[in-house]
Automatic annotation (TrEMBL):
The active site is at K194 (proton acceptor). GO terms for biological process: polysaccharide biosynthetic process. Belongs to the DegT/DnrJ/EryC1 family. InterPro entries: DegT/StrS_aminotransferase, PyrdxlP-dep_Trfase, PyrdxlP-dep_Trfase_major, PyrdxlP-dep_Trfase_small. Keywords: Pyridoxal phosphate. PANTHER family: 3-OXO-GLUCOSE-6-PHOSPHATE:GLUTAMATE AMINOTRANSFERASE, TRANSAMINASE. Coiled coil: none annotated. CDD domains: AHBA_syn (cd00616). This is dTDP-4-amino-4,6-dideoxygalactose transaminase. GO terms for molecular function: pyridoxal phosphate binding; transaminase activity. The modification N6-(pyridoxal phosphate)lysine is found at K194.
């Protein structure tokens, strides 16, 4: 009797992301469950985690909170952005870019993106500035940080806040300056799929503005100042941080740089092999290492759906992030300019296809993925 082994599909979302950390997770749960302090949120582990990230970034303050989304909300609230105000956001990206702005009563104004880097185009953003504009909120995308030097200059020239959605870019550095520290405030997310993802929900606000930091710290816990319990200085929200996640992330932080380096190594391999495909309708992200964050590796393919099916037939799982631009989403269309056009965002939504790039891919798997793309008939 003969047995044949069917090729197993390389998943896009690997179920074994935390396989090596399972004992650590169980130990962490036990440690906190049996700690006499019985403190499960905003305890000393959260404080140590905030301090570790603060020193790592050279930032003024890091405030841990419930998620990347609420981190954006806390910043918008702390900067006083409210009804009647406008915030310029990219037209292509994830829902929090629009719904956090709408959530504070303000209006998201959608700017088109650069056709290749897929991040907000500073010229498109500048053309949308009105007397009501209060902030620019660019987001770092799949592999490339937004053009922060130009956006910083633009914000300064027009007296706007710069809110950096760096949720996916932890560890990226542009011109020697880490992602998260370019804006008046930035954010990171620790949800499972992000580059420093963990087993649960969490985020941080990063800022070097002491007044903003103080306000965010109060807002995350019902407007209390951390000293006087049940004295509410501000109308806050519940966006606190879990001690189990803090302990887990504290112990995994030393391995982060190596995991990011492995992602970059895989991405460099892909780009080297895919660059010749540019004339055949498959465009890899721009090469280079400055201002890059290989949270996800995304191709632009003219025949995206055909490529997606071809990869599946070759046992490689691709993924389409954001098949619709934000201004076309049913929930956000009412906020979008009725005569608005976002041709680059629309093209990105039609053409983007992401490949697996997680650090524990083996070299053989990276080769299989590379070959699967290279054998696409163009
Ligand atoms: C994931 C993400 C967020 C939100 O983070 P959560 O922790 O999931 O709330 C915000 N912005 C971008 C660009 C993201 O990718």
């Amino acid at each position: 009797m003969t047995t044949t082994t069917a090729a197993t599909t390389i998943p896009f979302f690997p179920p074994d992301l935390f396989e090596d950390d399972r004992d650590l997770l169980l130990d962490t749960v036990r440690e906190i469950a049996t700690d006499p302090a019985q403190r499960f949120i905003l305890g000393e582990r959260t404080a140590r985690f905030e301090e570790l990230l603060r020193t790592d970034l050279g930032a003024g303050d890091v405030i841990a909170c419930g998620s990347g989304t609420t981190a954006l909300t806390l910043i918008l609230r702390a900067t006083g952005i409210t009804a009647g105000d406008e915030v310029i956001v990219p037209a292509f990206g994830c829902a929090p870019l629009a719904n956090t702005v709408l959530g504070v009563g303000a209006t998201p104004v959608f700017a088109d993106i650069d056709p290749h880097t897929l991040v907000m185009d500073p010229d498109a953003a500048e053309a949308l500035i009105t007397p009501r504009t209060k902030a620019l909120m660019p987001a770092h995308m799949f592999s490339v940080m937004a053009d922060m030097p130009r956006l910083r200059a633009l914000a300064t020239r027009h007296g706007l806040r710069l809110i950096e959605d760096s949720a996916v870019a932890q560890g990226a550095v542009l011109d020697g300056r880490p992602a998260g520290t370019w804006g008046d405030a930035g954010v990171f997310s620790f949800v499972q799929v992000k580059s420093f993802g963990g087993p649960g929900e969490g985020g941080v606000v990063v800022t070097s503005d002491p007044e903003l930091a103080r306000t965010v710290r109060m807002l995350r816990n019902h407007g209390q100042d951390g000293t006087h319990r049940f004295r509410h200085h501000l109308v806050g929200l519940n966006s606190r941080f879990d001690e189990i996640l803090a302990a887990f992330q504290l112990r995994r932080h030393p391995g982060l740089a190596a995991r990011l380096a492995r992602r970059a190594e895989i991405a460099t391999h892909y780009t080297r092999h895919f660059t010749p495909l540019a004339t055949r309708g498959i465009l890899p992200p721009p090469p280079g290492t400055d201002g890059r964050c290989y949270y996800v590796y995304t191709l632009l393919a003219e025949r995206r759906d055909d490529l997606h099916r071809h990869l599946a037939a070759h046992h490689v799982d691709g993924h389409v992030y954001y098949p619709q631009p934000l201004p076309h989403q049913p929930a956000f269309a009412h906020a979008a300019a009725p005569d608005g056009h976002w041709p680059n965002a629309e093209r990105a939504a039609r053409q983007c296809l992401s490949l697996p790039v997680y650090p524990h891919l083996t070299d053989a798997e990276v080769e299989r993925i590379t070959t699967a793309v290279l054998t696409f008939p163009t």
